Amino acid sequence: MIAAETNRESLSPESLSIDEFLARELNKDLLRFSTAGSVDDGKSTLIGRLLYDARGIYDDQLDSIRKSKVNRSSGAIDFSLLTDGLRAEREQGITIDVAYRYFSTPRRKFIIADTPGHEQYTRNMATGASTAQLAIVLVDARNGVLPQTRRHATISALLGIPRLVLAVNKMDLVDYSREVFEKIRSDFFAFTSDFGFEEIQPIPISALEGENVARRGGQMHWYGGPALLEYLETVPVSEDTRSRPLRFPVQYVIRPDQHFRGYAGQIASGTLRVGDRVAVLPSGQSSRVASITTFDGDMQSAHAPMSVTVTLEDERDISRGDMLTHLDDQPYVSRRFEANLVWMTEDPLAAGRSLLLKHSAQQVSARVHSIESRLDIGTMERKPAATLSLNDIGTVRIDASRPIFFDRYRDNRLTGAFILIDPLTNSTVGAGMIQSAVRRQTVDLGHVTPEERYARNGHGPALLALANGPLALRLERRLFDHGCQVIAAAQGAHTAALYAAGLIVISPSFTGERAIDLNHLPLPGDEEAAVDAIMAYLEQNGILATDRFSSGEGI
Amino acid sequence: MPSLSHLRTLEAESIHILREVAAEFARPVMLYSIGKDSSVMLRLAQKAFYPGRIPFPLLHVDTTYKFKEMIEFRDWYPASIGADLRVYVNREARDAGANPVTLGTAKCCGLLKTRALLNALSEGGYDAAFGGARRDEEKSRAKERIYSFRDQYGQWDPKNQRPELWNVFNSRIDKGQSIRVFPLSNWTELDVWHYIHLENIPVVPLYFAKPRPMVVRGGSLIPPEHNVIPLLPGEAPQMVMCRMRSLGCTPCTGAIRSEAATVPAIIEELLRFRRSERENRIIDHDQEGSMELKKREGYF
Predict the structure, then answer these.
(1) Domain boundaries, chain A
(2) What's the ipTM?
């Protein structure tokens, strides 16, 4: 028998056999939450207390903490030392990065993304918030709502966290005053009323004394709500993504032999069943789900967030970056969209900058068309801005070199999110949340320039001479599927016009200095491989702006 | 509708990571340490690419101080599921007699593990290496990314980590640089054992309690195998009912007294016991923050 001493006694006074225990463990679900706050708010102390009270802290870790030379608190155990991991942080006495912590109770497993609170660490806060289903915003009862409180709430809302806990800490230092708590609560609700949170739960606590952390304390009889841990254990786990429209980004193509061609991925939202009619984006072709294959056997249906492998009834040319959806409820398909962007690097962002954009399993080149506004967290106003600096949050318009399939971030946190990568340093420099597709640009006066065509098409014009007819059609298909303006046609009087329009024109033969003769390229015999080689060649010659056209295929 | 259980959620996320790396890197490799975490990682790789084969090799960096049972398991299990296992030994250092007693654990690990690992990765031209490390193991690991960028010397800069949001991973690297990938980042030791139980995954028998010859010194149980730790006067191996909580090299891995001979019994013991699993790893205790120092230098 296992005594319940390993978990919280108050919740499980019963004893269990190991089999009962294992069965229960198996059915536990998972809640990810983020915490934001500074050392002064007692955030590390709160987390240490949560772990301690949930008995998540191992005895020898406690031993090593008692031995440590640094002790910022006057009490016997400095809970904050349990969580501040890196040497630099220990020396400076502040948490500078996102740290992940784990604990569980009999009801649930928890993952904490512990993030720093100061303004200069907005990017870390955004990182921690990106996967969180709930956020704890910590306020020091003595100081009330501060600019950084607004920052935490704003970032939580922006990153789409549905639920907040307003934890008013250090109640012991304000004599557990109800008035202090109520004042902070109403201040907080006043500025978050239109943030769109599903629920905000205010809880007065003392992390140091353990009041209202694991269990309701004796000092605040006037408080009738749940203790923090009690709330965390019972709050519904996020929105139910499996009833949303199906989004299945193809991550990897599994082709162990000629008889099996499976599309592997993690279902971002929705439910997929054998026999479902699905659309393949971007080609728009449709087929039916023939099987859902897993190591543990075939399944009749699968739902988010499972990782599965799907086969279709018809042979389709599907590769990494494509997406399967149901026919009736499709995502936006666009190269242009407007997004909220958190800028994460020293070097400021200005309009016109070219970057790599990674969205779901797609990576494309993109250009920041314009910076529409910058958010002033102090006043919550969006103001015009020419640049975004490190830790700024702004609204930008993005032009991607080929269409991506997305939902608005507020509707789908996975298909609405993207990161921006600097192609020179390879750093992740921005995190974006798509607000809407941009259907029409503001009218630009003057002739359309080749540069504008290039920016729209994501490729330059080309005249490709390729006498092999079937290969030409296959190449046309591949280029088209990747969003290129392309036509395979006989050479004629209009060729020059097509070229001027920025198209890639494929014809059996071309003459003239602009023509690229593919007929003399050393191409592999296999058609698929030949197309791969031509794509690579077009990239090398600067016709195609994007890279990695051919990655992620097959085994 | 009930939510997906935490284990199945973790499983789905880990599979996503494995596939993402296989799709975006030219030459991935899976570091295979023979331990329970590697066993779980290997099962997840089987699942990720089923019905195909695992599209990358496994690599074991062998210090030659491993337990005999570990090597037997290594030579049997991966082959039995069709995985391609490669073994690398820093022969030069080993032939020069590197051992933790004369060199100290830090230097010995540096040569036989860290240096060997870096050599093996560079000789193999691997641009991504999976490791089974978990964030709950040790404080400095709590801040490590799932994709952990390493410069051309294999080193980690904790102050210059790439932000990692949602499940979107940045796989861009320049030639010579690499990424260490930790698909089990969000798993805890308990999750690992629970998954082994749920999936019936084979693990090295050393994890299970039985009477074994051990040198008893203070509270420590030192395995006499490989015989590099000199015995003190009056010391001799004696039979002790014990098991290994984590597997490393024989001179630096102590056993714990235990009766737990099955996976459920181990889970039960873990919960009662609540001692941190790396506690019996001598290497972490050299100095405070020692894991972080090793990682900066290129250790996993």
Answers:
(1) 4-234, 242-326, 332-437, 453-540
(2) 0.89
